[in-house]
Structure formats: C-alpha cells, structure tokens
Amino acid sequence: VQLQASGGGLVQAGGSLRLPCVVSGTIFRFRNMGWYRQAPGKQRELVAAITSGGSTNYADSVKGRFTIFRDNGDNTVYLRMSSLNPEDTAVYYCNTHPLLSSWSDYWGQGTQVTVSS
C-alpha cells in the first residue's frame, strides 16, 4: 500500500488549496478514507472522512470550509480547503478511517500546508 499526498504549499490566510492523495496497492473503492493533519507539537487529528459510499463527516474546526471527495476511477481522495487560517498549518495525510491497524504504518510523507497571517 502507498499513500501519496500532495498539493500543499504556502498560502495566505483566506486562501484555498486542493490536496489530492493517490492510493495504490488496494481496492480503493471499498475503502473508507480520511484526511488527517498534524501540527507541530500536537497529535495527529482527523479533519474529514468519506465512506466508500460517499458519506462524509468533518471535524468541527473545518466544517463549512473543507470538503472531502473521492474519484474511484483515479484511486484518489481529495481535500478542498478554503478560508484557510494559520491554525490550519500542519502536515496533511490521508489514510483509512477508521484507521486500520494493518495500515497504521502507511502514512507516507504527507504534504505541508502553511498558512500565513
């Protein structure tokens, strides 16, 4: 299994980014997926999740600003982020949600998002 998140960068407060995460080595369309983030000195947290059927849920801190969606044809899960603020600065990762124990080591490098004020 490989999880390749990308699309991060430096953005000003109020800006937007779209993060793709390509998933390989599994039958992607059957997987419930999530986007997670880890800020410096903090634990990794779930920000958004999407089931194999397309149902979504979000952390309260990102509701109304972030959208998770998936393209099963491209084995990719996306996170569209808008109205970014400095508190969104973190390394963003995708993985299964709930996190499968067998996938707990498959975080990959993640993608850095830095929001300047």
What's the layout of helices and strands?
Blueprint: E1 2-5, E2 9-12, E3 17-24, E4 33-38, E5 45-50, E6 56-58, E7 66-71, E8 76-81, E9 90-96, E10 111-116
Parallel strand pairs: 2-10
Antiparallel strand pairs: 1-3, 3-8, 4-5, 4-9, 5-6, 7-8, 9-10
How would you explain this protein's 3D organization?
The protein is built from no helices and ten strands. It has 117 residues and is mostly beta strands. A six-stranded mixed β-sheet has the order 2-10-9-4-5-6, with no helix packed on it. Strands 1-3-8-7 form a four-stranded antiparallel β-sheet, with no helix packed on it. The chain is globular and about 40 Å long.
User: Taking all residues together, what is the mean pLDDT?
Assistant: 96
Q: Given the C-alpha coordinates, what overall shape results?
A: globular
Strand order of the largest sheet: 2-10-9-4-5-6
Query: What is the strand tally?
Result: 10
How much of the sequence lies in strands comes to over 45%
Major pleated sheet: 6 strands, mixed
State the end-to-end distance.
37 Å
Instruction: Show unreliable segments.
Output: none
Radius of gyration: 13 Å
State the share of residues found in helices, binned by percent: under 10%
Task: Give me the secondary-structure category.
Answer: mainly beta
Order of helices and strands: EEEEEEEEEE
Give the count of helical stretches: 0
